[in-house]
């Protein structure tokens, strides 16, 4: 039977939808085949370029810096923190099971990417379309390893494709156990901790080899959101997330329900945060020095420092216990080689990171007289030489003493011990104010120094660490001491920097340093620094600026030199603040602990008592139990500038002076003064202690008295240029 034309037409032309389907399937198959070929090529080429397993283990995730104290303990970790690398067999099985259960339950069955996980992620993406939420649940452990080691956390389609290719290549090159080992040692767990060992030590205080089920659950739960679930940030959130991990472990058969119930995550104890905020003053000062010490910026670094944690705690306690209310304080302690053993830049680092020990510029007051007397001793003066305490005017500037009196001829030792301003001015004029400035420069003062006459009383601003350095150089018999905080730096166990102490720079002759120590120890034994006594030889000097804006004490004993400063950041006056009060007491509190385990060291010269007829200035009487005559009802010293009640001056007999002190050349015996209170002098000490009451004769003069105000300065030493007249504020006394 012949076919009709209609049937032939239908046979020649298929339906349109069928043709579209055919071409779509065909094109898709070809595209899929091309993509598969491209994927295979990409995977194989990526596999060939992958580093070896040992190289992957050693590759860092950024530079880590661990700062060690002098005893080797880690005080600060900067950048990523890594614990000990644990092999697969050393990782507790419960930790492996917890991580697989919560992060990739089909880890042992997929090829690097999880098709089921991809479908689930696509479903989530469809449900959350338009909300801006990212696709979650698609990454396998292998993909996370690829991202952690080779890629960034930037989220885009291109990165996900590269991540998938890397995951497939990793699965081909390494075993499942190796990939899981990489993951557990590389992944970030929060708190700066990378790897389960670092996390275990960070949160629980022990290595990861001893993790319990509850601890493993908490660590496994951190990967999803380290900052949110961190135990140190929110312990309740961490415990809640650990409960979810335990349920997932039960669902996957990793543990039984009974085992999950015995985990008892509510009773887990976390390692408390170390209370070392004052240590940051030291690290903020020391670590920037790495830029000039080394050029390594990739390998993890271990920085070994000079900081003594026991001294640091003692320094912190001494400052906080003695700083006046509303004021701030700072302390620096140097060992004999310049090693910084303690540094406190303020009462609390959290509330103020400003380091007053290294950054603040403050007037040093009478502690600056160290350089005046060093210059005088180098010029030939001796501690027992006689100078005249009398009114003096230099280029229109007339300093006066804190007690507003003049004692006549006295020894240089007495003038220094009782911080006599007029003698410092005369010595500065005799040797030259430029010479004093040069001496300060020689001993490490790095700030600007003026050469006006008032500079002898500490009108130039200085850093506490520079002043401490100067006193340390005196303690080392005139050898320059340079502060340092870093002893060595290691990278991957190899030493790349080692500090070397330079003892070749001699600043002054040893006898000059010994004579200066003679003066300094007398100031502590009987002068303005008596509150700094610690039961062993101490040499030091107080410093108080005008209106009690700054209080200083700097001194040394048994190889440790310590400088203390107190005051307000805005330079407002602090009532009752003298160098011989709170700063000296803070020095003593610290030094008693700092040198407790060190042998007692005697100085080259023994303590020599100052002239018997001298009265200490007002600051040395603050808080003494037997000196009620010289303090007001609030315990503040009474003197011409000390804020006597009503703004007046104390009575004339408040600071009695015998006639033989005012007129020593007449060799007269003191006249009875029944109306005056008993003086607390050497006679009084001798009478109370049962020793002879006969006063020692005045020290013999081995040098002519210093030139009077109207005399010509000594040739070759005086500053011949007339200095500009200072304002009243500049000419106020410093103690």
TrEMBL record:
Going by the UniProt record, its keywords in alphabetical order are:
Carboxypeptidase, Cell shape, Cell wall biogenesis/degradation, Glycosyltransferase, Hydrolase, Membrane, Multifunctional enzyme, Peptidoglycan synthesis, Protease, Transferase, Transmembrane, Transmembrane helix
Where does the Glycosyl transferase family domain start and stop, copy by copy?
74-249
| Boundaries of every Penicillin-binding protein transpeptidase domain copy | 330-592
Q: What cellular component GO annotations does this protein have?
A: membrane; outer membrane-bounded periplasmic space
Enzyme Commission number, as recorded: 2.4.99.28
Compositionally biased intervals (Basic and acidic residues): 678-689
Please list the residue ranges that the record marks as compositionally biased, kind Pro residues. 694-712
Which GO terms fall under molecular function for this chain's record?
A: carboxypeptidase activity; penicillin binding; peptidoglycan glycosyltransferase activity
Give the signal peptide range. none
Composition bias (Polar residues) maps to: 720-735
Q: Which residues cross the membrane?
A: 20-44
InterPro entries (UniProt xref): Beta-lactam/transpept-like, Glyco_trans_51, Glycosyltr_51/Transpeptidase, Lysozyme-like_dom_sf, PBP_transglycosylase, PCN-bd_Tpept
Biological process annotations from GO: cell wall organization; peptidoglycan biosynthetic process; proteolysis; regulation of cell shape
Q: Which reaction does it catalyse?
A: [GlcNAc-(1->4)-Mur2Ac(oyl-L-Ala-gamma-D-Glu-L-Lys-D-Ala-D-Ala)](n)-di-trans,octa-cis-undecaprenyl diphosphate + beta-D-GlcNAc-(1->4)-Mur2Ac(oyl-L-Ala-gamma-D-Glu-L-Lys-D-Ala-D-Ala)-di-trans,octa-cis-undecaprenyl diphosphate = [GlcNAc-(1->4)-Mur2Ac(oyl-L-Ala-gamma-D-Glu-L-Lys-D-Ala-D-Ala)](n+1)-di-trans,octa-cis-undecaprenyl diphosphate + di-trans,octa-cis-undecaprenyl diphosphate + H(+)
Pathway field of the UniProt record reads:
Cell wall biogenesis; peptidoglycan biosynthesis; Glycan biosynthesis
The region called Disordered is annotated at: 616-735
UniProt family annotation: In the N-terminal section; belongs to the glycosyltransferase 51 family.
Q: What is this protein called?
A: peptidoglycan glycosyltransferase
What organism does the UniProt record list as the source? Stakelama marina
